[in-house]
Give the backbone structure.
Amino acid sequence: MSKVKKRILIVLSVIPAIVVFVLLAFFGLYFTRIQTISSMEQLTDYPDGYNLYRMDVKYDYSLEDIIDYGIKDDQTMIDAILKEALPLIPVKMKAPNFGCTALTLTDTDGKVHMGRNYDFSRDTSAMLVYCTPKNGYKSIGFAALDNVSANVPDENITKELASLTAPFVCLDGMNEKGVSIAVLTLDCDPVRQNTGKPVISTTLAIRLVLDRAATTEEAVELLRSYDMFASAGRDYHFYITDASGDGRVIEYDINSEPRELIDTPSEAVTNFLIRHKDKVLPNQKNGIYGHGRERYDAVLKVMETEMGNYTNDTVWNAMKSAAQDPNPDDITSNTQWSVSYNNTDLSADIAIRRHWGDVTHCELESKVTTPVK
């Protein structure tokens, strides 16, 4: 037998083994991801097609690997997320934007709540994401599915796969220690710290806090240990509360370099720098200092009116007072969801797109989701 024929036979005998190995490796890598997709469930059914979904994240992820990828800009941030969530599969994703209002209060039973409106001019469905990382805290979070081009996530395999990135693009959430966090956009130049620390981007900071912080103080110290990169060409601040009622706004000082992190206690926050609220007037833009003072004032008015008799209804009254109808000229208009996190009971109630009479109740520990009314 010629050498050529022998080589052909060897190649033919090896190919099936290689194919089997590749298929087994791929199946092993995607088995828990397929389980995650299978857990997907639609919780509401609105005629406009923008709904609430839920998903249990079954696959193991490494936040360290995402950060170690080396985040330099929006594209490297997206590449790092996709490499972790969807290894070996080419998927496109855009960097998200975020508006909003957030508040915290302790009710008459001693339970701590964080209320949050997510406002964004473009309509979106929402994904309730349950995460149970091996080396972190259990959490629930909400992701805007329009940011991953999957408003109907179970429509086809492409959108199902895109939804696997949801843990890393959550815009708010709460963990088993009673720490809740939300991100809100600002009008100043985006922060890009460069002090030599590992770089973390906006939504990855939310995942970091949910996975690893047991208190607001721990969350602040965690964020201090990273250089912040604000994604999508906008600046942001975070609102963080914990089971003790410690509510703080996390901002990156616009009046100094390297824009160090500043944490400021506050009952509420919207889309202006809380550190400079004396320079912000309602119903107008205020340059680099931001906007949304009228929503902040409306929330504080509700809290002042109901002081001494706080309940979960107070949270909803405050969020309704700050909710916004669509305005195509305002990126932080059009309230997409409103959620009341109970940092004590580890539960959340959510209403989609101002459907105030249609609330879904979520339990962190039992993973129960039930309609309230």
